[in-house]
Design brief:
Layout lengths: L1 E7 L3 H16 L3 E3 L6 E6 L4 H17 L4 E6 H5 L1 H5 L4 E6 L6 H9 L25 E4 L1 E2 L10 H5 L3 E2 L2 H13 L4 E5 L7 E2 L2 E2 H11 L4 E4 L9 H6 L8 E3 L7 H7 L5 H14 L4 E8 L6 H13 L4 E6 L17 H24 L5 E8 L3 E4 L4 E3 L10 E10 L2 E6 L1
Parallel strand pairs: 1-2, 1-3, 3-4, 4-5, 6-9, 9-12, 13-14, 14-15, 18-20
Antiparallel strand pairs: 7-8, 10-11, 16-17, 16-19, 17-18, 19-20
Helix pairs in contact: 7-8, 12-13
């Protein structure tokens, strides 16, 4: 029995795929999951920023150093876009991009035996009905790839054109997760709202999954602004739908959004968020903002701040602009000074903290359902509040109702009911 470990970087889509890869290895009966002296380590990489690339390399090199003799397998987005960089690292046993990720198990077994087969692209949905491996929530992949050409984004090169999983397979997977008592299902994809399968669109997928669920709750990982509408707002009222939406803004400036080649403007973004909040005021709304995009003036940045504050964003995930090789924005001039970008990042961080506290304070005295993520001490509510409590009898993975008691210094305290 060989010991296997996995290191996952990046998004929830990577988390799903790491679970799927692990499931293939473990179901063979020849591997066991262990971080102690592993014989095999899988590093599932991200390449959304240059900082991510740097972290990929550091983790790979650290893994090789800490586990001498272990086979190190590298996959994911960085392995897709820059495989030669990874193959050049001494100690890397195998590099497989996203286009071969779902058959990583068979590729490894072949190479370990000294065999090889002709290159072929694997099915991005060939993982089957993936179950969570060591965490409380399950990820359900329904879509992959992106046809959009945002000027700053490397993901289309890493994930390819948009493709969708069949509705039948999605519903079968959701049923199995529900039957196994998984407390939360997180829908994942590069662009969930672009789901298309023989005339079926995203709204129907969500509606049909919700019809199946009796105990599991459903969360969307992220949704593009153009897919936020009244239909989604109405779906969010379902008792099994988590009161949570993450909708990337990237910039509140009309001119910067044009330079980014985003498909909306600040006014349309506002209207869409206001629409769903009118239908469901309890929604936790989070967003992404890029600070320091080429050409971003102080006035442009303040437009981003204004949108986040006006809409009461409960979370602002801020990124400094990162030039990605092969994208149009990598060659754009007029990048703000690094010190200016740091100051803008600091301001966005302060907005994030105050926005979360204001949102959380609205629920003091109210009850919310939470999934315990740290035994006896911490849970995640359906509306994405990380709450603290004290009750050692409450086990990790269980679901409880909690009363929110107070919010102090960004921490939400509660008592189990």
């Amino acid at each position: 029995m060989k010991r296997i470990a996995v290191e996952t970087l990046g998004c929830r889509l990577n988390l799903f795929e790491s679970d799927g890869i692990l499931q293939q290895f473990l179901s063979s009966g020849r591997y066991s999951l262990s971080d102690e002296k592993p014989d095999l380590v899988i590093v599932n990489t991200c390449t959304v920023t240059d900082q991510a690339d740097h972290r990929n390399r550091n983790i790979i090199q650290k893994t090789i150093k800490n586990h001498p003799g272990a086979h190190v397998l590298v996959t994911g987005c960085y392995a897709q876009t820059d495989p030669e960089d990874l193959k050049a690292i001494p100690g890397v046993f195998l590099v497989a991009g996203n286009d071969q990720k779902s058959k990583l198990f068979s590729l490894y077994e072949e190479k370990a035996r000294g065999e090889s087969s002709p290159f072929s692209i694997s099915d991005p949905f060939a993982y089957g009905n993936v179950l969570p491996q060591g965490h409380t929530r399950a990820y359900l992949k329904i879509q992959d790839g992106c046809d959009r050409k945002c000027t700053y984004c490397k993901i289309p090169a890493a994930r390819g054109r948009g493709v969708s999983r069949s509705l039948e397979d999605i519903l079968d997977h959701a049923r199995e997760l529900e039957e196994k008592g998984i407390p939360e299902i997180v829908l994942t994809g590069v662009n969930l709202g672009w789901y298309k399968d023989r005339g079926v669109r995203f709204g129907r997928v969500v509606a049909e999954i919700l019809q199946i669920l009796r105990q599991s709750r459903l969360r969307l990982s992220s949704i593009e602004p153009c897919d936020v509408d009244e239909e989604l707002g109405e779906l969010s009222l379902h008792p099994r739908f988590c009161d949570f939406l993450h909708v990337p803004l990237q910039s509140g400036s009309r001119e910067i959004l044009k330079r980014m080649r985003r498909t909306y403007n600040p006014d349309s973004f506002r209207k869409r968020i206001e629409t769903v909040l009118r239908i469901n005021p309890d929604l936790f709304i989070g967003t992404d903002v890029i600070a320091g995009f080429p050409g971003e003036t102080e006035a442009d940045f303040e437009e981003s701040v204004r949108v986040c504050v006006d809409l009461g964003m409960a979370n602002v995930h801020a990124f400094p602009f990162s030039p990605r090789r092969g994208t149009l924005a990598a060659d754009y001039a007029d990048r703000p000074d690094a010190q200016v970008v740091r100051r803008r990042m600091d301001k966005l961080k302060a907005i994030k903290e105050s926005g979360y506290e204001r949102y959380a304070a609205r629920f003091v005295g109210r009850e919310r359902e939470g999934i315990v993520e740290k035994e006896g001490t911490e849970a995640l509510t359906d509306n994405f509040l990380r709450i603290r409590f004290e009750d050692p009898s409450i086990l990790k993975g269980s679901t409880h109702n909690f009363r929110i008691e107070r919010v102090e210094a960004g921490q939400v305290y509660s008592s189990p009911l």
